[in-house]
């Protein structure tokens, strides 16, 4: 197969993984090749641009935009109102919960599974609806052998990543000791420990509700919420691009200051990194590392910054300026 | 146009400011996003979110030197992030695809280039008929290869081959135009 054919298939999105690898190696092999790749991409996109623009309706989009910005102002108010309202009705709710749990006792056909991951390796659990949950070390999940028809309820503790099958009619409910997360079909990361929890959404959206105050917030893709007991829940943009590195083994840095690089490495490799001079933290690193040993990554960083050197004693690494 | 934006900014009439953004940039940003994510709805949502994020930071808008390049950069980064997340979660080990997308993202020129588009249109007009038909159905009408194959009663392989042929001929022709312009 010649290279134009490969590029053409890639642009049409009909190429296979193997073909993409061949093409990628060819493109990055030389500047000449990159130069040959560029115009074909350019002509491909430029040729369809005008016609494609017609497919998008900017007026409708602006109307939606106006609706969202006016809703946002109201939503923040609602959370506060709900939180105070909850305190008044909590007594009534306790009775309801008591009733609900006694009802569950009579339903004997369904058994409950509890799985805990005691290993360092990530453990993958497939649920009855073929949703998947990835358990980090020390995480735990409980789920029924069969979900009831109204909702899919699971209980987790620790750090997990959920990849939920879409089913509009059967909401997926994740409870942890601190929060409850309601989803329709999405992928998100939950990290829960002693009275605090954080949720980061990789795809889709979820509703996170605090078990203590019933305050809630809707999180969309690439947003996160950090919750601690009796505080309001606020959604923020997730700036932690490596939040899934525990599961994927991939660390990505994109013009990332070493301060963040080091803290991501510390988390991934369970080590601690110190510097002799705080200025080192502001150096910038770009690169992707997949399933490397800690030592390999440290070597790469030292090579990228000729003015830096490091020493390692057990799990503690210290970086210093060479001139010192 | 720049002046129009600047005038509104001093008046702090944000809704009017964002209406202008939609009017001038929305469709073109969507097309730009679609070249990454290949899904109309997803592209539109990404653009919508980028503009909404800009709304949240509207008070610091004066710090943005070029609104246009800010918007395109933000859309590009969001798309690349989206692709990465999508791949990670699908457990689709196609790192090569992500790498190519990253390289490619520098070549997808988001801004309108009338001259280039004119060259392209001329070159398309000169393609052999079947080849032109297939290419136009793919790029102008946005049909999938399978749909083109059904519509023209030719095999999917033939569709692919025609598109490849069109691209390679476009490249030769446009380079020739550029060359002749330089010599003029």
Mind explaining what this structure looks like?
- The complex is a heterodimer of chains A (324) and B (184).
- Chain A has 324 residues and is α+β, with helices and mostly antiparallel strands.
- Chain A is built from seven helices and 19 strands.
- Chain A is globular, with a radius of gyration of 25 Å.
- Chain B has two domains: 2-105, Rna Polymerase Sigma Factor, Chain: A (Orthogonal Bundle); 114-183, Arc Repressor Mutant, subunit A, CATH 1.10.10.
- Chain B is built from nine helices and no strands.
- Chain B has helices at 2-11, 14-37, 40-56, 67-90, 95-105, 114-125, 129-139, 145-152, 156-183.
- In chain B, α4 packs antiparallel against α5.
- In chain B, 32% of the residues are buried.
- The model of chain B has no long low-confidence stretch (mean pLDDT 81).
Summarize the structure.
The complex is a heterodimer of chains A (324) and B (184). Chain A has 324 residues and is an alpha+beta fold.
Radius of gyration of chain B: 20 Å
Mind summarizing the main beta sheet of chain A? Answer: 7 strands, mixed
CATH class categorisation of the largest domain in chain B: Mainly Alpha
Q: Biggest interface, and residues per chain?
A: A-B, 63 and 68 residues
Question: From the alpha-carbon coordinates, what is the Rg of chain A to the nearest angstrom?
Answer: 25 Å
CATH fold description of the largest domain in chain B: Rna Polymerase Sigma Factor, Chain: A
CATH topology assignment of the largest domain in chain A: Jelly Rolls
Number of helical stretches of at least 4 residues of chain B: 9
The CATH architecture name of the largest domain in chain B reads: Orthogonal Bundle
Q: How many domains would you count in the coordinates of chain B?
A: 2
How large is the share of residues in beta strands of chain B? under 5%
Oligomeric form of this entry? heterodimer
Helix percent of chain A reads 25-40%
């Amino acid at each position: 197969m010649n290279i134009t054919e490969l590029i053409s298939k890639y642009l049409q999105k009909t190429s296979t993984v193997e073909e993409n690898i061949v093409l990628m190696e060819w493109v990055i092999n030389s500047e000449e090749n990159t130069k040959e790749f560029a115009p074909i991409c350019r002509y491909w996109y430029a040729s369809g641009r005008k016609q494609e623009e017609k497919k998008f309706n900017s007026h409708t989009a602006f109307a939606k935009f106006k609706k969202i910005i006016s809703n946002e102002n109201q939503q923040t108010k609602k959370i506060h109102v709900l939180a105070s309202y909850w305190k008044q009705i909590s007594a009534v709710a306790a009775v309801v919960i008591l009733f609900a749990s006694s009802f569950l006792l009579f339903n004997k056909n369904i058994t409950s599974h509890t799985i805990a991951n005691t290993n360092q390796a990530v453990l993958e659990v497939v649920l009855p609806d073929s949703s998947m949950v990835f358990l980090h070390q020390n995480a735990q999940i409980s789920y029924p052998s069969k979900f009831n028809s109204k909702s899919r309820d699971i209980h987790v503790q620790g750090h997990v990543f959920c990849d939920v099958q879409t089913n509009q009619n059967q909401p997926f409910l994740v409870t942890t000791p601190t929060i409850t997360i309601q989803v329709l079909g999405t992928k998100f990361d939950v990290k829960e420990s002693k009275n605090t929890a954080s949720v980061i959404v990789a795809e889709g959206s979820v509703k996170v509700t605090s078990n203590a105050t019933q305050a809630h917030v809707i999180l969309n893709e690439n947003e996160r919420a950090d919750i601690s007991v009796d505080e309001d829940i606020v959604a923020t943009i997730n700036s932690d691009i490596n939040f899934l590195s525990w599961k994927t083994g991939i660390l990505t840095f994109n013009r990332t200051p070493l301060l963040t690089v080091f803290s991501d490495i510390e988390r991934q490799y369970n080590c601690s990194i110190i510097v002799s001079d705080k200025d080192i933290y502001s150096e910038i690193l770009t690169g992707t590392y997949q399933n490397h040993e800690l030592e390999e990554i440290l070597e790469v960083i030292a090579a990228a910054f000729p003015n830096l050197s490091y020493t390692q004693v057990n799990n503690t690494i210290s970086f210093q300026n060479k001139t010192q | 146009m720049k002046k129009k934006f600047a005038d509104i900014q001093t008046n702090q009439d944000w809704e009017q400011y964002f209406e202008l953004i939609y009017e001038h940039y929305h469709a073109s940003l969507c097309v730009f996003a679609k070249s990454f994510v290949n899904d109309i709805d997803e592209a539109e949502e990404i653009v919508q979110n980028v503009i909404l994020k800009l709304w949240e930071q509207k008070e610091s808008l004066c710090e943005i030197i070029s609104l246009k390049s800010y918007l395109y950069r933000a859309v590009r980064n969001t798309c690349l992030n989206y692709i990465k997340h999508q791949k990670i979660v699908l457990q689709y080990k196609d790192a090569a695809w992500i790498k190519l997308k990253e390289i490619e993202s520098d070549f997808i020129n988001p801004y309108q280039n009338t001259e280039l588009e004119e060259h392209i249109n001329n070159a398309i007009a000169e393609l052999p008929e079947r080849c032109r038909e297939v290419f136009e159905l793919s790029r102008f009408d946005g049909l999938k290869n399978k749909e083109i194959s059904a519509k023209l009663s030719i095999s999917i392989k033939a569709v692919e081959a025609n598109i490849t042929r069109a691209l390679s001929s476009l490249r030769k022709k446009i380079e020739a135009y550029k060359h002749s312009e330089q010599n003029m």
